[in-house]
What does this fold into?
Amino acid sequence: MKISVIVAYHDEKNYIRDCLGSLAEQSFHDFEVIMVCDGCDKPDVSEWNGLSIHFARTGGAGGVAAARNVGLDSAAGEYIFFMDADDYLASDTLERLVEREVPGGVAYGRLQSTWYSRKVYFDNGEELDRQNGVEHKVYDGDMDNAYEYLPMRAKSLQGITILGMLISRKVIQEHSIRFCEDLHYFSDLPFLMQVLSHAEKTSFCEDGLYIKRKHNDPVNLPSLLQAKDDEKKVFEGMEAYRRAKKFIPAQDESKNQYLDYKFVKWLVTRIASFLVEAKPAKQKETAIVLQDTLKLLGNGVYRMLKHHPKKLIRYGMAGDAAGLAKKTRNHARKQTLFRICTSRKRYLYEKVFSKMKMMEDTVIFESFFGKSYSDSPKYIFEYLNEKYPGKYNYMWVNAGKKLSLPYSSGQMKRFSFKYFYYMARAKYIVFNGRQPQYFIKRKGNVFLETWHGTPLKKLVFDMEDVTTASPLYKEQFYIQTRSWDYLVAPNQFSEDIFRRAFMYDGKMLETGYPRNDILYREDKEQRMRKIKLELGIPEDKKVILYAPTWRDDEFYGHAQYKFTLKLDLEQMKRELGKEYVVILRTHYFIADFLDLSQYEGFAWNLSKYDDIARLYLISDILITDYSSVFFDYANLRRPMLFFTYDLEKYRSVLRGFYMDVEEELPGPMLFETEEIIESIRRIDEVKEEYQEKYDRFCKKYCSWEDGHATEKVVHAVFGLTGQEK
Ligand code: C2G
It folds into this structure.
């Protein structure tokens, strides 16, 4: 017997038809159903004669944990699969999960919640039945230890579930893993953490769909455990977290961080609001337990937290319940105020500012959402200032931190009053990313979109499903691109893709990237020396720039992406330190800032440095992965290595590539630090080996670049000829 499907049944008479019906229609047949009745009578299952259904029961209403334990006692399958009686599966869920083959481990799929019954609709209106047109991705890559997908399944501590997981029974048996029956709401949490800590392998398969039904009858349905909220739940959440933490070894950073982060979310959303309402005695009692619980929180989680949760943790650690409640109240007030303020700003933007006279000589610049003074907008700004001093007024968008600008310009924080004011009135807008969806394009307005890289990873309308973005992503993108007047194309390849993937039919500037002009400057050598000096990088050392991209699936929260350094800097320092230094440059979406102080003198973390083009200039070798940085770096004709340790996952799961990387990349794809070191040692040979590919690459991707892109763009967009006095 391959699988024992354990269904905890608590009289969900109205729903069991969908549950059993979906099991009866599975394309995989080698399974038994163990239906554990928890304090209720057996349902009539005569309709499903074809299914092998065994009944068991708890000794009274023992709860879902007790029911699952009873189910485990009589299970004979190689794998266990738990279901709630009101949920159902897609017709190939079990087949997809079994395909992962995880003896001694866990395979899990995607959870999809719905208000609807089987074969009707998902919440987003998609039909469930795949034959009828909805495509669900099948991932080829074998994702061993795919823990990183867990955060996608649960928003907070209470959403962590074993549902939709195929678990090797051997793991459960060998380690006597049981559900804690004293936990009413959180019994899945310690169970799952224990399973994961013993699993030899964890595999994720998006196609193994588990459909979780939502209800609005909190009185009668056990699945509404999620919806009810009470004091018991708050205490139980802390207890479950404490128990779960015991099962994770201290050195297992990814699982610890995962759990810690969920707990902090729980603290911010539930415990804190509970404290706001609680009487002083209850506040005190909670604070004592919380203080004790927070001792288990690892340091790793701090890096990814914003100011507010950090503050709550500090109060919690000090046992100061009143302080924690006060902080929560103030935060809620601020948020309400923020919401009111934002809608007032939007109102003024639409109804007042946009009706005012357009500022004909004002140009707004934004690069990477105001995070830096960089990229093509920077070079366009500098060119305008050098060639046409005093001709325009400038406003730079920042992300809250003032940018350091070499010419006079106003600055405004993104989404501030000032921002809305100028966005409504400035004639020229130069962005390297997208503008807000509600941007109003006025008559006479000129929108120059420079974009920020030759695409390797598939973009918008070329992606089947943008699973990690908002469901409205494509629609928003479409609306946004309608406002663009000019789009800069670095090469023909990008132009073709932009047209299709952005569904863009405006003017295309076939100029190359203004940001790359610097790579063609004749005074490159002097500039390199100056930059090295400015950064304190020894002039006699060669520089390796490591600039990886971000990963769609590794995140802490909205626009907060994780980065795990897979390059062994210790080893690199040992083996290459005499000749080289390393610059680490993470993508601007990455929230983690790695402390490299232990490698002082060998490695620099320049992730916050404004302009990567200046780092290209001073580096002798580039290591990257799937980032568009290599298209730009190729302009220097210097050697590149590709550290593609997660190639299969990235290529087949996350994005899909526009090019055949094995065929076209102008450098070796490497998977281990040793290989990187080895290639650096013999870098001249590597260069020679890849010369032909490199030449072909440059012909295809760099042939429009000649160091004059900025002037071409400026002349086209601002109606200048270059001959003005
Ligand atoms: N970048 C950087 N440092 C990194 C990675 C990227 O400064 N470690 C900058 C580079 O200018 C790069 C740009 O951000 O060209 C875009 O980064 P990508 O890694 O290519 O990723 P993404 O932001 O997803 O853009 O068409 C391009 C795509 O949209 C990719």
Notes: Residues 375, 452-453, 455, 457, 547-549, 585-587, 612, 627-629 surround C2G (CB under 6 Å). Confidence is low (pLDDT under 50) at residues 121-143, 217-228.
